[in-house]
């Protein structure tokens, strides 16, 4: 393994792109699922680069290792840091604040200090590992201080930062006791990228308001350093989803699902991490409202909600799980018939091809987050509809709504409006559904996750 100052390109993210196998594959690493890892993997592989991140296990980190032609630089996180840095500052302060304060953010100094310490650790490992003049691409809200720390340690580096979640407006961001430190941390980058124009505008306003940065010629200038701020909407691997969707085993499985789960009814699907930003509870209440208005709808449609376990140590996530499971029980108890369940709920991860088969089996996909940086599930559903069928219901507050304009867009807080939209989706004329879907497919195929990564890398090397 090369020693110091070796890598010409480094991705820095809270998690490494691999997870440790369980059961029989204990002790081995496998690639983490998801579009981000698929998009960044070839760039890191082709550039002879490395990836710095946490393994997902607390305690001392393993030595750097190579997997899938990528050097992994594990960053240690202790058990106490996990609760103060990850559960605390990342997911108890920044996550709710940046998602429109849909839950009350907590501001604790005992969480802020470990955030600084962990960010410093990421910066130190990266600084030690980057070759002279290397490019470093830092990701997401866990590591907002890394750009400035890294610039201080290694002024020769080109540093990019991309935020995967929304950047809030002043009335929210201004509440953060450490707003100046966060902004100055981000301004250490040469390029700061956001999901939407709105996020980038919010950031520019906050930087001007709370730091010494000034805008000149479309760039932010601070302490003699120029920062390019822009929007780079993340996307999905369109071709991969599109091709997988017509694989014989996926086609077979989706028909089977339709028979077993649909039992002749249309399938309305929700696929989310079990997170309070995703609007799962309001969506279920809207379905409940639809059944209350039209009890016969129980013979026309079934709601399948897939909820991936997430951040289970954080109180709000545990409460949400309880609430969602109670709602599912209520709806099934009230509106179900013998042999006919209105809501099918799964709380687990699914293998990739099972997820694609589910996307294919659903006539209606409901993506209704209260706030979301982008929402890849919406784009993945579109990518699997190779025959232009299917109706996407999409929250106005998902970043994807800027691009997927022909989705049935909804206010995800409006139970009545959502109930009406679900009803409308169920009876949307085929021609209209095809028109809407084919337009969305043009948009997603015209801007894939590879285009996203290319455009960011071009900005970084400009
Ligand atoms: P977030 O990043 O907030 O979780 P996104 O919608 O942008 O939300 O991304 C979620 C990712 O997780 C998608 O790539 C989706 O395919 C994947 N995913 C969602 N549910 C499951 C599941 N049950 N099993 C496996 N992967 C899932
Ligand atoms: O969308 C934000 C994000 O942090 C992603 O980067 C990540 O894949 C997802 O949420 C899950 O988060 P966690 O790493 O907390 O499980």
> What percentage of amino acids are in beta strands?
15-25%
Distance between the termini: 31 Å
CATH topology of the largest domain: Rossmann fold
Kindly name the structural category: alpha/beta
Which strand order spans the largest sheet, edge to edge or round the barrel?
Answer: 5-6-4-1-7-8-9-12-11-10
Average residue-wise pLDDT = 95
Biggest sheet layout? 10 strands, mixed
The poorly predicted ranges are: none
Helix content: 40-55%
At CATH level 2, the architecture of the largest domain is: 3-Layer(aba) Sandwich
Describe the global form. Answer: globular
Q: What is the CA-atom radius of gyration, in angstroms?
A: 23 Å
Q: How many strands? A: 18
CATH class of the largest domain: Alpha Beta
Total separate domains: 2
| Number of helical stretches of at least 4 residues | 16
The CATH homology group name of the largest domain: Glycogen Phosphorylase B
């Amino acid at each position: 393994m090369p020693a110091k100052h070796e890598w010409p390109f480094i991705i820095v993210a809270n998690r490494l792109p691999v997870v440790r196998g369980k059961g029989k594959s204990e002790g081995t690493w496998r690639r983490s699922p998801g579009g981000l890892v698929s998009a960044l993997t070839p760039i890191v592989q082709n550039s002879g680069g490395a990836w710095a991140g946490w393994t997902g296990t607390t305690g001392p980190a393993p030595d750097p290792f190579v997997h899938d032609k990528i050097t992994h630089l594990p960053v240690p996180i202790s058990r106490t840091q996990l609760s103060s840095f990850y559960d605390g500052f990342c997911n108890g302060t920044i996550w709710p604040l940046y998602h429109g304060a849909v839950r009350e953010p907590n501001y604790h100094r005992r969480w802020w200090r470990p955030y600084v310490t962990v960010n410093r650790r990421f910066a130190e490992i990266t600084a030690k590992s980057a070759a002279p003049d290397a490019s470093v691409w830092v990701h997401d809200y866990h590591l907002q201080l890394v750009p400035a720390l890294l610039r201080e340690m290694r002024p020769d580096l080109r540093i990019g930062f991309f935020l995967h979640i929304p950047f809030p407006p002043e009335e929210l961001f201004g509440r953060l006791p450490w707003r100046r430190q966060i902004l100055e941390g981000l301004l250490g980058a040469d390029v700061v990228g956001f999901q939407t124009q709105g996020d980038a505008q919010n950031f520019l306003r906050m930087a001007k308001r709370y730091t010494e940065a000034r805008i000149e010629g479309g760039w932010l200038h601070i302490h003699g350093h120029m920062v390019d701020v822009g929007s780079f909407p993340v996307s999905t691997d369109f071709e991969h989803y599109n091709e997988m969707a017509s694989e014989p085993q996926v086609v077979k499985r989706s028909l089977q699902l339709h028979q077993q789960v649909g039992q002749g009814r249309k399938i309305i699907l929700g696929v989310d991490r079990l997170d309070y930003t995703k609007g799962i509870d309001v969506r279920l209440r809207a379905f409940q409202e639809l059944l209350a208005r039209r009890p016969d709808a129980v013979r026309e449609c079934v709601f399948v909600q897939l909820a991936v376990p997430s951040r289970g140590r954080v109180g709000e996530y545990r409460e949400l799980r309880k609430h969602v499971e109670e709602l599912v029980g209520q709806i099934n108890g009230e509106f179900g018939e013998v042999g006919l369940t209105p809501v099918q709920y799964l709380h687990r991860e699914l293998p990739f091809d099972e997820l694609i088969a589910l996307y294919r089996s659903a006539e209606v996909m409901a993506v209704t987050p209260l706030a979301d940086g982008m929402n890849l599930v919406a784009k993945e559903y579109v990518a699997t509809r190779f025959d232009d069928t299917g109706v996407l219901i999409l929250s106005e507050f998902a970043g994807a709504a800027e691009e997927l304009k022909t989705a049935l867009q909804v206010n995800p807080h409006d139970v009545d409006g959502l109930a009406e939209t679900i009803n409308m989706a169920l009876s949307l004329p085929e021609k209209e559904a095809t028109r809407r879907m084919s337009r969305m497919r043009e948009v997603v195929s015209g801007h894939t996750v590879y285009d996203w990564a290319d455009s960011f890398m071009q900005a970084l090397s400009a």
